[in-house]
Amino acid sequence: MIRSIRHLGRDERGMSFVFVGVGFMAFLAATALAIDVGMYMVARSQAQNAADAGALAGAVALVFDSFTDRTPSGPVVQSALAASRANEVIHQTASVEPADVTFPNDPAGQPNRVQVTVHRTTARGNPLATFVGRFFGAPTANMTATAIGEASPANAATCIKPFAIPDKWLELGTAPWDPEDTFDRYDKKGNLLPTPDVYRNMTNGEYTGYNPNPEGPDYGAEIMIKAGNPHQAINPSHYFPIALPPNTGASWYSENIPECWSGTMRIDDLIDVEPGNMTGPTLDGIGMLIDKDPSAYWNTAMRRVESTRSPSPRIIVIPVFDPLVYEDSRQHGRQDIKVTNLVGFFIDHVTGNSIYGRLVPATGLIRGDSSPYGSSFLKAIRLVQ
Question: What is the pTM (predicted TM-score) of this model?
C-alpha cells in the first residue's frame, strides 16, 4: 500500500493534460485579444470616419447654406447628421442625434466650428457585440468618437478666374460709398486731393473692404461688373483682366474662365494686367459657366445659391485688388494689381457687356499664417480634431 502511494507520487503520467488545459486558456485569451480587440479597433476607425464626415459636412453647410441657422432642423445640423449616419460602424448605423452636433468657438473666439459625436453604446441601445468576451462576462463594448470641423478664413485659392475687381473703400468725396463712386485720390495734375478717398486692407486695421459677415450688407450683395478703363479712376463695377502664370494671351485667358486654373493665388500677391480688350473672351467664358448649371439661382429669402450641384460651377473665385496701390501706380503709368482679398462670386446673368452676380462665400486654402485675413469671403474646410 505504502509502496503504491509512493509510486503514484512519482508517476508523471497525465501532466500533459495540465499543460494542455493551461495552454487552452492562453489560446482563448489570445483569441479574445485577436478577435474582440481587433473588432474594437475597426469599430473605432469606422466611428471616427462617421464623426469626421459629419463634422466636415456641417462645416461645408456653414459656408454654403447658412452660417447662422444652427437649429436642430437647420441645414448645418441636418447635413452633419446625414453624413454621419451614412457611415456604418460594424454593419450598423451609429447613433447621432441633433444634440450630438454642437458649435464650439475656435481659439480666437470665432463661432466657426462644428463638433459631432457618434455613439455605439449601451445607453443608446446599440453597443458592439463581442465574440469571445461574452465568455468572460463582457458581452458588449461601448464606442464613441468625436470630430470637429472648421470653416476657417482662407488666404489663398486655386481655380481663380482671370479678372479682378477693386475692393470697397471709404468714400469721402461723395459719401456714402455706392457703385457709382470712383476712387479719387489725385487731381488731374497728380496732386493729392484735400479729402482723398481712403482704403485700408485687412492687415492695416479697420478694414474698409467687402465684409463677409452673414448678417452684413455685403453678404449676397448684387454687383455688376464690366471692363474697366485704365485711363480713368476706378469704379466699383470695373474689372480688369489679369494674366495668370505661367502664360499670357487671349487663348490662355479664355481657357481659364470655363475651366480651372491649376495654380494657387494668395492674398498679397502682385499680378499683371492682361493687355488688350478681353471683353469678348470674358463674356464667352461666363456664358459657358452659366450653361454648366443653367437652373441655379439666388434664393433671396434664404440668402443662398440654389443648385442641383454642390457647389454650383457658377460660384467662382475672383481676386479683389487694392484700389490704393492701383491708383498710386496709375499716376506713374502702370497698372499694379495687388490681391487684397478673394471673394466668391455667383454669376447670375449677363446683359450686354455687363456681368451681374452676388458676393457669396466659397472654399479656399490656407497658406502660411492666415490669422490677419479674418475678413476673407473664402473659407478653408478642415478637420481640427
Answer: 0.80
